């Protein structure tokens, strides 16, 4: 089995670099993991590495949205048997539920009321950073996930996390290709859109795994998560969402008024001041390189940056070359437009 796991390590990295969309990534990781841990469906969520807000989501043959949201609420409240907060923080990255009930499960596009045959949760942590979580499910009547399969998944948890990170970091930093104006949606306490600008509806369709399936009264997983986090924080929540057409920023703000729990969610291309901290983590930018990037964003030439940071111009240029290589840009101009 060791040789098989090592082969999957390599395959996961290659598949992540080749994936174009988040659903592509989910299917690729599921296929590779399925060679060792067979499953009938999955949910994959990526997290903003700075605040653990949802920034990527895809699923296949898995729980309904209502059940998934209930699970997220239970997870945050510590009511789940294996909460992701514990899985990403502790040494045990996997947790198995052999049988149980949810609100409703959907496997092989067939709705099954209130049940599942087995669930495995995997916390995706790499280099001490939580990058996401993965849920595998088996339909009712299937054999439950075994202790041996949980051990194999534990071995693959970090490579899966690294693959998720590579999916984002393999895309060069480029300016946003979105021409939509910022959108605002008011999310009621019932998790329905109470009101929204036309551009907000367009943004939500873009954020949906399958855009044509979005009911404008409902929410995508990413938008719902921001509203939920804003309520938990009692004020604000932020997520930076990487896409192949540029980074999107979602900002949730709890509203004052007669309806408790209403949240205004603003959706727009991510500005550089919000993007730089997240990009630094996703692309592996060092602390010194990030300081240089901050100076570049102010429009300072190399000599001025060197004086301000007490470095030689040669050292500043070396940092810039490392930044260009990591982010996939070729010049200071491309770096600036990518963070515009």
TrEMBL record:
Keywords associated with the record: DNA-binding, Transcription, Transcription regulation
Record SUPFAM superfamilies: C-terminal effector domain of the bipartite response regulators
PANTHER family per record: DNA-BINDING TRANSCRIPTIONAL ACTIVATOR DEVR_DOSR (PTHR44688:SF16)
Pfam family, one: GerE
Keyword Transcription regulation recorded: yes
Source organism of the structure: Streptomyces noboritoensis
Domain HTH luxR-type span(s) in chain numbering: 278-340
Protein name: LuxR C-terminal-related transcriptional regulator
């Amino acid at each position: 089995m060791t040789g098989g796991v090592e082969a999957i390590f390599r395959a996961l990295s290659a598949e992540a670099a080749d994936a174009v969309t988040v659903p592509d990534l989910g299917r690729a990781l599921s296929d590779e993991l399925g060679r060792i841990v067979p499953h009938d469906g999955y949910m994959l969520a990526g997290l903003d590495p700075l605040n653990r807000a949802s920034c990527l989501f895809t699923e296949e043959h898995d729980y309904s949205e209502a059940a998934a949201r209930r699970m997220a609420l239970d997870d945050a409240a510590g009511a789940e048997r294996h909460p992701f907060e514990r899985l990403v923080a502790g040494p045990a990255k996997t947790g198995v539920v052999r049988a149980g009930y949810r609100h409703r499960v959907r496997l092989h596009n067939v709705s099954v009321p209130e049940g599942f045959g087995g669930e495995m949760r995997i916390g995706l942590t790499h280099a001490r950073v939580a990058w996401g979580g993965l849920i595998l499910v088996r339909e009712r009547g299937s054999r439950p996930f075994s202790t041996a399969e949980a051990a194999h998944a534990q071995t693959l948890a970090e490579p899966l996390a690294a693959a998720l990170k590579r999916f984002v970091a393999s895309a060069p930093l480029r300016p946003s290709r979105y021409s939509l104006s910022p959108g605002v949606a008011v999310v009621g306490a019932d998790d329905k859109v109470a009101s929204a600008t036309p551009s907000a509806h367009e943004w939500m369709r873009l954020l949906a795994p399958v855009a044509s399936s979005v009911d404008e009264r409902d929410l995508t997983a990413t938008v719902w998560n921001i509203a939920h986090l804003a309520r938990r924080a009692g004020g604000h929540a932020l997520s930076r969402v990487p896409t192949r057409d540029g980074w999107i920023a979602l900002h949730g703000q709890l509203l004052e008024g007669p309806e408790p729990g209403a949240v205004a969610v603003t959706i727009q291309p991510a500005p550089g001041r919000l993007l730089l901290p997240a990009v630094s983590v996703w692309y592996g930018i060092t602390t010194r390189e990030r300081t240089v990037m901050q100076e570049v964003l102010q429009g300072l030439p190399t000599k001025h940056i060197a004086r301000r940071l007490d470095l030689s111009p040669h050292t500043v240029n070396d940092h810039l070359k490392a930044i260009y290589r990591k982010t996939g840009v070729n010049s200071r101009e491309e770096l600036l437009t990518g963070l515009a």
